User: Which sequence fits this backbone?
């Protein structure tokens, strides 16, 4: 690591040690024909991604003492397309679950969606308008375990019904866990029978957690509150407050990096900067 002044989002030596083996292994499997190892320190590239995630800055506004924006964007896209971002995330999740005395994959997941405004410059084609929430932009769906750890994420146009988002999430949950491990999924009343029917095909029972008719305003629901907590954690990463990404897959990758940032802190006992101090 360089001798520059550190940022609050920078990886500590302990946190980098959790991530570095995955990146080094990927580089070893995809060596340059010329043998060139690249001009940029991979730790600094990840630091730049985490800085952007926390601050929400544009590519061209990355600080000059971090790698150039073009190089950081190149590696972000490479890690998105080859699945390295999800591999890092999944390995960290398994370690957090093991530390909590749990098996690698959960038996129960909680699903929810959140509609986000799309920023100026985001193409109109992969966006839409959520007719219920009156939000123009994209819909982000999360599947989390009972610890609030991410199991799957999907980003779609905001106009897409929660049923389609729920079905896509269940497919990704099934693909991201050992077959037959996940037995049950909790959802809210926005998800309809189509999600339950699809879950049954995958061997996952879908249960709708109904809201108490007497409740007014936001009231956390038993067990389902962990997905609300996960959405709240994502809001600490200002790049995720709106959808700034050209591609939905980039928006999904941003979620993996943000949660990986949080889990690396959990595993090393490092506190995250607060909202007011971020």
Assistant:
């Amino acid at each position: 690591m360089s001798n520059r002044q550190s940022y609050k989002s920078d990886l500590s030596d302990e946190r980098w040690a959790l991530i570095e083996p995955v990146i080094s292994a990927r580089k070893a499997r995809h060596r340059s024909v010329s043998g060139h190892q690249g001009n940029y320190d991979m730790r600094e590239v990840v630091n730049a991604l985490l800085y952007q995630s926390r601050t929400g800055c544009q590519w061209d506004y990355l600080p000059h003492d971090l790698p150039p924006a073009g190089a950081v964007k190149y590696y972000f896209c490479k890690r998105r397309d080859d699945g390295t971002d999800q591999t890092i995330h999944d390995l960290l999740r398994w370690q957090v679950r093991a530390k909590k005395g749990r098996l690698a994959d959960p038996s129960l997941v909680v699903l929810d969606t959140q509609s986000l405004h799309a920023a100026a410059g985001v193409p109109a084609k992969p966006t839409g308008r959520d007719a219920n929430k009156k939000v123009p932009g994209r819909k982000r769906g999360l599947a989390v375990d009972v610890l609030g750890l991410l199991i799957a994420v999907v980003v779609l146009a905001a106009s897409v019904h929660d049923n389609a988002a729920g079905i896509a999430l269940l497919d990704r949950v099934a693909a991201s866990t050992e077959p037959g491990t996940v037995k049950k999924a909790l959802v809210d009343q926005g998800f309809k029978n189509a999600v339950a029917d699809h879950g049954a095909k995958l061997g996952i029972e879908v249960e709708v957690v109904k809201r108490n008719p007497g409740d007014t305003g936001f009231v956390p629901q038993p067990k389902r509150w962990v997905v609300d907590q996960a959405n709240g954690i994502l809001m600490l990463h200002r790049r995720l407050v709106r959808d700034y990404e050209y591609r939905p897959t980039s928006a999904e990758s941003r979620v993996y990096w943000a949660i990986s940032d949080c889990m690396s802190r959990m595993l090393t006992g490092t506190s995250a900067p607060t909202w007011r101090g971020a």
